[in-house]
Write a structure and sequence with these properties.
Pfam families: NAD_binding_10. The chain is α/β, with parallel strands linked by helices and about 210 residues long. About 30% of the residues lie in helices and about 20% in strands. It has one domain: NAD(P)-binding Rossmann-like Domain (Rossmann fold, 3-Layer(aba) Sandwich). About 45% of the residues are buried.
């Protein structure tokens, strides 16, 4: 059975992904800074490693086949944490994955990371960090899939998405639960390496869109 490392497992999307993997009896390892913030940390089927992404976390990759990078600095932090987590920690994760011969690396990025220069916003440093992390992964030789969701909501997931960018920002929103479902679908497939998907709330089943 393959083992999946979730980096940022205590975040909102990370929690959803980790919980589903545990419930479906998939082999999972959660990398978190504080295990007390992980809802299912007391589940005996889940391996939990505590580490600071600003330091060395290479040990988390031992014996792992797949990696999901869903860590983020958070909306309340400054540009320094954006640089250290969304770019530098992501870069280190790619290096560790390459050294460990990871078979699949799923990077959770952001809409706008394809062209940060086109956006004038307070989140531009975040988008630049995501852009550089994505480009580093693409050039690394590590088998990858990148997802770039639109604005995230806590609405109930419907399992319905679109990968075609809507014309208005309001239509770009997507529930975190549907991003998590998309990540898990990608994890289950062997033919999506090298793909970059933008994700938005839509009307199509995840398994009919992500091809």
């Amino acid at each position: 059975m393959s083992k999946t490392l979730i980096i940022g497992a205590s975040g909102q999307i990370g929690q959803l992904v980790t919980k589903t993997l545990v419930e479906t009896e998939e082999s999972a390892r959660a990398l978190v800074r504080d295990k007390n913030k992980l809802d299912c940390s007391d589940n005996s089927e889940l391996e939990v490693i505590e580490a600071n992404l600003e330091g060395d976390f290479s040990q988390a990759f031992d014996g792992v086949d797949n990696v999901i990078f869903v860590a983020g600095s958070g909306g309340s932090t400054g540009a320094d944490k954006t640089l250290l987590i969304d770019l530098w920690a992501a870069k280190k994760a790619v290096d560790y994955a390459k050294a460990a011969n990871i078979k699949k690396f799923i990077m959770v990025s952001s809409i706008g990371a394809d062209d940060p220069e086109a956006i004038e916003s307070d989140i531009k440093p975040y988008l630049v960090a995501k852009h550089m992390a994505d480009q580093y992964l693409i050039a690394s030789g590590v088998p990858f899939t990148i997802v770039r969701p639109g604005p995230l909501t806590n609405d109930q997931g419907q399992g319905k998405i679109t990968i075609k960018r809507p014309s208005s920002r309001e239509e770009m929103a997507i529930p975190r639960a549907d991003v998590a479902k998309s990540i898990l679908f990608i994890l289950s497939k062997d033919d999506l390496n090298g793909k970059v998907f933008e994700l938005f709330g839509g009307t199509y089943d995840v398994d009919n869109v992500l091809v």
